[in-house]
Amino acid sequence: MVSCAWRNSLVPLALILLITAAVGFGMGKVGWSLPPLVGRIIVVDPGHGGIDGGTHDQQGLLEKNLNLEIAHWLRRSLKEAGAFVVLTREGDHELSYLSNKYKSRHRRDLNSRVLITEKSRADLLLSIHINAAGNSAHRGSIIFFQPDSTESKSLALLIQEELSKIGPHHTRSPLAGRVYYILRNSEATAVLLELGFITNQEEKKLLSDPQYQQAIARAITAAVIRHFTHK
């Protein structure tokens, strides 16, 4: 029989899990520490999905699929750093069915991503996208931040800095994302990441490479850790 003392314990299961996770991050040495993102809730939003393929390369490669692949790598990387991670979508579907706020399916889809972030009580929202341009020479990432948020801008700068370490074309300065619904409506600190151009042949190959996707995920995770470490 389980004792009353145990049933009434105030030690939550989450704490037990955190202590267990700490074993892999230094316990058993002189002192120990928890993973750097323990206690942080992060929403990773793979843009588009389902009927909404996003941009494409004219040859069948769709942005929505690259977004999801990178998002899965990012979730894994953030979880390894101790974060609790929520994906707005796990597979190839859009999210308009979660909202009834607008007549437009597209607006309902965007609103649903904000609602998921709110219900998760997230510290951060990272919205993953791939860019396109009429000029195939364009390449490199562009990070957009919430126009009126110093925290969002600071995070965007850190992400851009970390991405610059994995490739010479990630050098653009972050921009205020005034036109983006998610950035304008999220109460959580949010950034929208355009991680490269699907219309640039060399960059398209990189963005389709799992090793490069993983490198992107690790760079973003490093920036998130720095963001919280120096707050």
Q: List low-confidence stretches.
A: 1-30
Rg from Cα:
19 Å
Coarse shape: globular
How many alpha or pi helices? 8
CATH class: Alpha Beta
CATH superfamily: Zn-dependent exopeptidases
Question: Can you walk me through this structure?
Answer:
This protein is an alpha/beta fold and 231 residues long. The chain has a single domain, classed as Aminopeptidase. The chain contains 8 helices and 6 strands, in the order ααβαβαββαβαβαα. It has helices at 4-7, 13-22, 63-80, 105-120, 150-163, 181-185, 201-207, 210-229; strands at 41-46, 84-87, 124-131, 142-145, 175-176, 189-197. A 6-stranded mixed beta sheet has the order 2-1-3-6-4-5, sandwiched between helices. α3 (63-80) packs across α8 (210-229) and α5 (150-163) crosses α8 (210-229).
What order do the helices and strands come in, and which of them pair?
Blueprint: H1 4-7, H2 13-22, E1 41-46, H3 63-80, E2 84-87, H4 105-120, E3 124-131, E4 142-145, H5 150-163, E5 175-176, H6 181-185, E6 189-197, H7 201-207, H8 210-229
Parallel strand pairs: 1-2, 1-3, 3-6, 4-5
Antiparallel strand pairs: 4-6
Helix pairs in contact: 3-8, 5-8
